[in-house]
Amino acid sequence: MDQAARRLDAISSHLNTQTCSGNYPKGLLAGEVAIITGSGQGIGRSAAILFAKEGAYVVVTDVDASKSDAVAQEITSQGLSAISIPGDVMDPAFPEKLVEGAVAKFGRLNHIVNNAGFTYDGMLHKTTDKQWDMMLTVHNTAPFRIIRAAAKHLRKQDGANKCIVNISSTSGLHGNIGQANYATAKAGVVGLTKTVAKEWGAFGVRCNTVAFGWIETRLTAAKESGAVMEVDGRKIALGIPTGNRKPGAATAYADIPLQRSGKPDEAAGGILAMCSPFASYISGHTLEVTGGRGI
Fold first, then answer.
1. First to last CA, the chain
2. Could you tell me the domains of the chain?
3. Which of the 8 DSSP states describes residue 262?
4. Which of 7, 72, 232, 294 has the smallest C-beta neighbourhood within 10 Å, fewest atoms?
């Protein structure tokens, strides 16, 4: 077990000790309903499993139905609660189907994690309108539509723990070469979050952003590994090219104080923190989960 794995194990053990006794014997999110988009793999999958372990009823959703169904099955096989509602968040009709499906199954809605997304990189002068529009659609328009679809369920004076978490990135906070479209979209997430926090705070709804740095997912893997995302029949290459790195160049982690990348489970922990009752007075905030990058 490496150092990072040992730390994660220690954190997990601490959480289990705290939530299996004391104030939260059934978990931090016991009985609460959470929709987590893009939860068929990566950070979304880790978040879905973590939320379920903390007592939530989880709605797993992914554009890949087989992955969405598999994660839901993985959760239920452990005696926890989850359903799968697969679909494309960029489809204008899907947000309503997703929200109403969740409420029909579990009777209510507490949390939305707008995690689904991908990159479509290119230098600015070569970026097409299609590349630009797709990033804004998946990272801005889709979360907006899901939140809007949930309005009638969340805008109630019911005293429940309710939180929306929108996922951003260090690219959105600081910009990034080759990601004018992605950086713009992820910056827009922060504005959406703050607006929802101001409009819906009176109904007890908190809204926060979690901005990730270098987390080990298919978006940060070597581009040469061949990972792709297929949208509208178009295959989009994912990852970060490493073939042009010069010998002796600084490591990828040189600007990260913790000197390593993050794990999906650690990223999921940041999302859980924002939804937990311990964040009951945190709203409109951007939590950076970056290992210290960008400070």
1. 29
2. 28-215+261-289 (3.40.50.720)
3. B
4. 232
